Amino acid sequence: MNIVWDFFDFRRVAVELLMAFAPLVLFFFYMQFRFLRLPRSYVLRLVKGVILSYCGLVLFLQGVTQGFLPAGTEIGHIIGEAPWRWALVPLGFLFGLAATAAEPSLRVLAIEMEKASSGAISQKLVLVTLSLGVGVFVALGMLKLLAGIHILWLVVPGYLIALIMTRFSNPSFISAAFDAGAASTGPMTVTFVMAIALGVAGAMDGRDPVADGFGLISLVSLAPILSVMILGILSSRKRSDS
Description:
Blueprint: H1 2-36, H2 40-81, H3 88-101, H4 104-116, H5 123-147, H6 152-165, H7 171-183, H8 187-203, H9 209-213, H10 216-241
Helix pairs in contact: 1-2, 2-8, 3-5, 3-8, 4-5, 4-7, 5-8, 5-10, 6-10, 7-10
């Protein structure tokens, strides 16, 4: 029975993604026949890429919903009931670090930043900066959850600092920073890290899964903004010194 259920859920994910992909593919072919006139070899490569992306996303999202969500929630329950629950802070750093390093959208952003800067900002540097930043803020979010700190005490000062930093950061890095903030809240981070936070909040006495478990993703989206702008400030200083 579970196998049949998993199959139908797999089919639902495949249909939903097909509906999301179809308008983009149809629009490309319309532009191709009316205006672009790209070479046939290029179009064939693009079609192969679309098919591979579609199949990969179907498998990925199915794995996320069937694997990461239940596993994250169960891990959160175990940690929330344990006497060593404060270990969640360093564990949160590791979880954030690993989830960001595996986030597909951030990898694409890092590749584009390397291209746009003509190699001056390497893909590896961007990924390391973002992974460390998100890891620190996930650890901060876990500390908030354990200590019962309200989310506004972290989010409001964080975004005020981000706005102040725009005065000193390179304009190119400002745009990339806010894009990184949106790209960081992808399927890896949302499904795994948030599931752990909700599991901990549900297991701890005096914690509300809705009021205390949610809010972590807002910190995750803030981390890349600050991290990339710090990288921009350091990069500008390095150029001025040289």
